[in-house]
Design brief:
The chain is mainly beta. The chain has one domain: Porin (Beta Barrel). It contains 10 helices and 22 strands. Strand 15 and strand 16 form a beta hairpin.
Length: about 525
Amino acid sequence: MRKNLLVMALLSLPLLASAQYTFDALQLSQTELRGTSRFTSMAGAFGALGGDLSSINQNPAGVGVYRSNDVSITLGPEFNGTKTANDSRQSETKFNVNNVGFVGSTKLNNDVLLNLNWGFSYNRINSFNRRYRGVASAIPTSITNYIADQTMFDGMTSADLDPVSGNPFYDGDARWNQILAYRSYLILPTSDINNYTQSFTGLGVDGTYGAAEFEVQEWGHTDEYSFALGGNIANTMYWGMALGVTELSYEYNKYYGESLTNTVVYDAADDPDAQLVDGNADFGIVDWSRTTGTGVNFKLGVILKPVNELRLGFAFHTPTLYEMKDTYQSVVRASFSGDNLIDGGYQLADEYTPDYQSNWYDIRTPWRFIGSIAGVIGSKGIISADYEYTGNGTIRICDENNNEYLDATTEIKDYLQPSHTVRLGAEYRVSPDVSLRAGYSYQTSPVKDDVKDDKVAVNVTGCNTAYTYDRDIQHITAGVGYHHKNFYCDLAYVYQARNMTYTAFPIDDLGKTVKWDVDADNHRLSATLGFRF
């Protein structure tokens, strides 16, 4: 495959993507295990404990546990690595400020409501920074087959894809990837005005065979600013509420390319008597997208302490209502060769979409419920556990006037399922000043098995046909804390194992596609410096 196709595309423009669809909305809705070092070193199992600045974002009743003021900052590096099945490794390093916060506690002259507390925290709740790539030496089908199937299903004619006058990107009903594929000869017209020859069928004696490669580079983050209010009722029940304001920035470059031998080539040089001939094709599709948005959510929580050794926590998170906007563009670079090509046996195609900016639209993320339990072992130890239910099927996408996209709602229900997260944490005080901590968490896939098993033809929009989803996510964590008088310092290590699947395009009419399993490893170190007074 010609690597210069990717190089030329990367140099020529910032690359494109698609309009928003189910898997984009799912990715932008997710949160990660981030926060203070004490919180992350116990895998975030703090729903029944509180007394930590990150607990404001999980169970806001945690702010009611405080009996003094607290201020802290958490920062540190992270190291991202990915590997595909062919052992293609990618890595990068980032430095983040994960949490900054303050809690103020006011003692009340009341026998029931003992404290009234308020707090503010900044949390980085998701980082999109990662890079992954892969190659396949033998593929069972081609993206051109999928686009040809889609074009015929939509009933698009040559006049729809390349009209004599007008701009098909804005004036017609054709999908942008169909227009690009037609104009760059990746889907091929036949004598039937509504029919397109699939490139992977091939005219050669040996049939078509080919290779593929992909590369994805992602950047961005989601930050949340939380304002919390909570209280302590008779040292038995702690309550809290929090208003969260989120800021999201997400950008990606995606490349997908194929090299096909003994494929069908459109001999454009012989126009108007163009014909289909046997030849070879090398092409690359490059997409770029940037999404920005702001959102708001609300959280309610309670922590119960029926006896000193037992804590129970319950929290409910409303969906975050985002207002978003996309900018995107796409390019196709292709070259064709063959003995029967009239134009010297070699020809090129080079097609771009417009640089498009969407209108504002809304995404409503899933609602979440968290149930927690913790045991306190004398003055030495803590064991805690959380269960979180995320209703991914409740994601909704609306236009700027809050009109729901009903097709997207149907697809979300068809493709997504609830995800379940279990978090376990422990802390042991080895001396009055030093504590050791450890934790583990596991999150199930938000995608239904029929999608993972290619039994469902996923619908995509715009130019980008690729989508990525998580199969599962695990965390293994550890840390140490030092607390002397009013000062404390916590250190944490978090290992995240994220198993993903990258699919270059949905299944074609024969139920075939090209996809890779991707293992993403993230190693995070963090230090929290704090002061209580």
